[in-house]
Write a structure and sequence with these properties.
Two copies of one chain form a homodimer.
Chain A: E1 9-13, H1 18-29, E2 33-37, E3 58-61, H2 68-74, E4 80-83, H3 90-95, H4 97-118, E5 123-129, H5 152-171, E6 174-180, E7 182-184, H6 197-207, E8 211-214, E9 220-221, E10 223-225, H7 226-238, E11 246-248, E12 255-256, H8 257-267, E13 272-275, H9 279-283, H10 294-300, H11 308-321
Parallel strand pairs in A: 1-2, 1-4, 2-3, 4-5, 5-6, 6-11, 7-10, 8-13
Antiparallel strand pairs in A: 9-12
Helix pairs in contact in A: 1-7, 2-4, 4-5, 8-11
């Protein structure tokens, strides 16, 4: 896979964030010529340390994808764009919906407008989210499931998906949309509790603090280890037949929240308990979720290679070996 | 119907525009206490002359619904809000998609945030558009038809619909969404060709200029005379059972573009011809459209009362009697 990117000019927006920086590491390994745009918006996970070890091989611009002048300059000459910049927090999107609108809609629309003006021959891989489905009518959820987001973040990611489809149809700017599910692994932001339960669980487990599970612990999620997501994204950028389409990612073995805590407790010593859902969290909770990724597997042969046990083991090990988290 | 609004405090955003000003006239007749917010954004149809005759009975604020400070002040104390401010032009949304984002998404989200902070007991009637459906899979189109907009304007109106549903679900701010189809009548903006074919047809017909029909003239549309749309909106604001729902408007007698021109030619003397679709217009054209409004009829007994012949007659007569358009 990496060979395909050798010598290619690749732009990663949000390349200092969690998934973005993992994409950058893989691209650099594969011999790509990598540019990064990241605005380092406070609290959104961007961190220059995420590129430790490859920083001198990457062209980093601390710029904002919402700025058209910067973008028309910066997007030129790239063969492929991985569009990862944005806000991912559901709860933050409720606290400040206008900021979410700006980061997720204005940002993607500005990127596309800049490409329309200056670089129509590129291809974009857009990282969307399972959150666009809202509360599943049944699981596993495939791409034919109705789109009905329950929070502002989901609404804006849904709108951005339409931008990509629209610019493909009308202006011929190739793109592919991947709907990611919960992703975890090295370089994830463990400090910000608004970015999903998994980072909070892992941080508290590492620190020996009590992990609080909202609800009774039976809620189902499918988790992807970040290396599998990076592989899926690189495939998306490299395979022409996916252009103009939308795909779920997912994992063959969904797990309950309690099971995640149980696995972490085989690796680390910490207490846990179940607590009632906070009202605000319940209002935008989607219940059980498990994505059907067979469409993407059929198209690309992608298959997650890391079990949740293995992935959590690797993640814990990485944080224990780094200085990036609280380690007892 | 008007009795229901007697003494009610009603806010109309975009109240200096085409449909908004017609709503205001009806509300003033019915004894409502009416406030108007309109930013008079150039080219968007807002015009103080649209309130000629009632201006001294209306509290007009030349303000921008995108401005949170202004809005938190202005939305207080209203019982009902008719949310009509926004951009309606499909072609303009392609020329400047970021402006469309700002006017249609930032505007509605700011309105809702202001209501959440200062006036949760109000009810909003949001004027959406049939454009959210994109190219109909079959006609007539009912509310179960997939939402798949073909232009940026449709994407943003779709997102705004979700805001209203979301703020109803999570914060209890009541609202109803009406998907309008082509609306025409007194006070429509005839000067701006980007706002749909119908204004252009009527202006050129009034001026004796050649009306150019894109395509072969067989394309189907359903037209609503503005008084019928105003009636539908007033019902939406007054009936509790519609809260949280989405409805099509429409007309029982869809017509072809050629038929519209033929009717106008019974009223006015002007030449017409068919011309091939311009490339840019074709890219976002939706083909035939005819909306099924039976859900709304069932819920409210609303039924369009004006035939297209009668409506075009009244419209032409109004412009001939006013100084608002080129009249030979």
């Amino acid at each position: 896979m990496n060979d395909i990117y050798f010598g290619k000019r690749v732009l990663v927006t949000g390349g200092l964030g969690f998934i973005g920086s993992n994409v950058v590491h893989r691209l650099v390994e594969g011999g790509a010529e990598v540019g990064v745009i990241d605005s380092l918006v406070s609290g959104h996970g961007g961190n220059l340390e995420n590129l430790a070890g490859v920083l001198d091989q990457v062209n980093v611009s601390i710029s904002d994808i919402r700025d058209m002048d910067q973008m028309t300059h910066l997007v030129k000459d790239y063969d492929i764009v991985f569009s990862l910049a944005g806000q991912v927090s559901h709860s933050e999107s409720m606290r400040d919906p206008l900021l979410d609108l700006s980061l997720n809609c204005q940002g993607q629309l500005t990127l596309l407008e800049a490409l329309r003006r200056c670089n129509r021959d590129t291809k974009v891989v857009y990282s969307s989210t399972r959150q666009v489905y809202g509360r599943p009518e049944d699981i596993p959820v495939d791409e034919c499931h109705p789109v009905n987001p329950v929070d502002t973040n989901g609404i804006h990611k849904m709108a951005a998906e339409h931008y990509f489809s629209h610019y493909y149809e009308v202006f011929g700017i190739r793109s592919v949309i991947l709907r990611l599910t919960n992703t975890y692994g090295p370089r994830m932001d463990l400090e910000n509790d608004s970015k999903g339960f998994l980072g909070t669980f892992i941080r508290k487990a590492l620190c020996g603090e009590t992990v609080c599970i909202f609800g009774d612990g039976s809620q189902i999620r499918d988790l992807n280890y970040v290396d599998d997501v990076v592989e899926a994204m690189l495939l998306a950028g490299a395979i022409d037949s996916v252009d103009g389409k939308v795909f779920n990612l997912g994992h063959p073995e969904p797990v309950s929240l309690q099971r995640i805590v149980d696995i972490l407790q085989t690796l680390l010593e910490f207490p846990s308990k179940t607590v009632p859902f906070p009202v605000q969290a319940k209002a935008i909770d989607i219940g059980d979720y498990w994505g059907d990724y067979s469409r993407y597997r059929s198209e690309t042969n992608w298959e997650p290679s890391v079990s949740v046990e293995e992935g959590l083991y690797r993640t814990v090990e990485w944080y224990q070996e780094s200085d990036s988290a609280c380690v007892q």
